[in-house]
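Dear Dr. K.,

Following up on our conversation at the group meeting, I've run the structure prediction for Carbohydrate-binding module family 13 protein from Mycena venus. I'm pasting the input sequence below exactly as I used it, so you can double-check it against your construct before we proceed with anything downstream. Let me know if the numbering doesn't match what you have in your notebook.
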Amino acid sequence: MVRTFHNTGAMAIYKLRTHPVKRNFCLVAAMPLAQGIYSITIYDSVSWAMEIAGGSPSDHTQVQIWQKASFGTKDSLNQLWMVKTTTNGNYTLRNLRSGSYMDMAEGSAANGTHIIGFQSNGSNNQQWKIIEAGEYYKIRNVQSQTYANLAGNYHANGNHIIGYKDTGGENNELWKFERRDVSAAEIQLSATKSGYDLDINLTSRNPMFYVPPAALLSEIWHQVSLNSSSDKGLAFQQAVSTWAEGNIRAAQDFSLLVGYARGTEQAENAEFNWTLSDNYSSVVFFSPTTGSTIAYPGGHSWGFF
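The predicted C-alpha cells came back this morning:
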C-alpha cells in the first residue's frame, strides 16, 4: 500500500511476483522542465542548494543558499521544492518543509529585492518562468520580470537569493534542477528491475511519489516505539505518515511511498515495510523490528500492500 497522509481514504494496492528480469532504469527531466519535486543548486556547484531558511512556514522567510544537506536528513526537506505548472504556462515553486511559495517581495522590479517564502496568495509575485539555458535554467518572476540571482555570486550559508535584471551570461542566475520524485510507471520499472511483476490498482489522487530515503526512515524509527505493536509493519507505516504530517507542509501535492510487505510460503508471517532504494532503481525492504534497510529479506514469495 502507498499511503497518502493527506487523504486517509486513498491507497494503492500492489501485488508482486518474483522472476529474473533485468532492465535499465533512469530518471530524465523533460524539456521544458517537467512538474516534480526538485533540489535546486547554483551553477557548477552541487554543494550549494536553494532553501527556505530553517524550513519556516512564516511569511517573509528568506529564500537563501545553504550548503546542501545530506539526503535523508530532515534539513534536506528545506531544500526540496515542488515545481508545478499553472494554467497559463507559468510555474510555482513550493517548499516541501514550509509549504510556502517562492515569492518576489512586493513584486518589486528593483535589483536586490529579496526573494522570500510566502503562503499562497495567487499573485504573479509567486509565478515564475523557468527558462532552459543549456543544461541549466533561469528563473524569472512574472510580476517583476527579474531573475532569481545569488547575491554577489557569494557561496556562503545564509546568502540571499535576490531579484535582479538579466545579467546576460552571469553564472549566479543559472540553476540546476535535480529531480527527487518518481511516478507510478517508474516505480513499476524499478520493481521489474528487481525481479517483480508489479500490478497496480492506484486510487491515489496524485500521480507523483516522494520516496523517503533510508536514513530518514531510520531516523523516524528511532523516534517511535513499536514494541507493543502486534503488527509492526503497519504500525511503522502509520508512524511515517504521522511524522510526515508534522514535517512536510506541502503534502497535498504528492504521495509518500512507504508500503507493507508480508511473506508467504517460506517467508510466511515475516513482515517488512518496502519502498525504493535512494537512487530509485530497485525495491528495498525496511525492517520495523531492527530499523535497518536490506535489499532482499529472503523467502520465495511476498505479498506487497
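Two things stood out to me. The longest helix spans residues 232-247. The two ends are 4 Å apart (CA to CA).

Best regards,
J.T.
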